[in-house]
């Protein structure tokens, strides 16, 4: 099994604040890697640093063996990396359709979208088909989250970075997301997923990295962490079993 993404000794400063303190992280290709940790541990900063929204320094980030830490965000995206931020990152004044077209690098207009893939997305998130021509800003919070995820998967990606996708979603939609991510994994899409929904973490995760105070303090198999309540309590201050 090869590693699609590696972080080696990555530090990130935001203004006067030193957020990441030498992060080492390995993301195996074709797997779902969970990035867990208490609030403020540095999980979101790690995703934003991978995408070039924050500059790593010092440290090295490699995607398929090539360094990307000095690249601009659009150049990182061009390599097949998508990012679903916690803030969702949709364009509220544009329609659902227009949001999807903007996310599709190979489509200059709606008619150029991959119809088979679009039908698959509509199967996962029927509300997007229903509100296809509505301004995205008029969607509910859960529907906006669906659109954010749909934008990331409108075309095949090699790696998707996702920050708490289940936040604010009804349990039935969370199950749809789990199904969608499993299908993506079956298509050899690699996913790095920050998530506070431990049911989703346990259902999806192949490997896990746990962060604390800007560092990765544990990595291993998600199944092993899910079964070890003592380790959960030590690393996360809670039990996954209590959140099943």
UniProtKB/TrEMBL annotation:
CDD domains: ABC_TM1139_LivF_branched
Keywords of the record: Amino-acid transport, ATP-binding, Cell membrane, Membrane, Nucleotide-binding, Transport
Alphabetical list of Gene3D superfamilies matching this protein: P-loop containing nucleotide triphosphate hydrolases
Keyword Nucleotide-binding: yes
UniProt GO MF annotations: ATP binding; ATP hydrolysis activity; branched-chain amino acid transmembrane transporter activity
PROSITE patterns from the UniProt entry: ABC_TRANSPORTER_1, ABC_TRANSPORTER_2
GO terms for biological process, alphabetical: L-amino acid transport
Origin: domain of life: Bacteria
Residue ranges of every copy of the ABC transporter domain listed in the record: 5-238
Coiled coil spans: none
Keyword Nucleotide-binding attributed: yes
InterPro entries reported for this sequence: AAA+_ATPase, ABC_transporter-like_ATP-bd, ABC_transporter-like_CS, BCAA_Transport_ATP-bd_LivF, P-loop_NTPase
Residues spanning the signal sequence: none
PANTHER family: ABC TRANSPORTER ATP-BINDING PROTEIN, HIGH-AFFINITY BRANCHED-CHAIN AMINO ACID TRANSPORT ATP-BINDING PROTEIN LIVF
Family affiliation: Belongs to the ABC transporter superfamily.
Name used for this protein in its record: ABC transporter ATP-binding protein
Biological source species: Rubrivivax albus
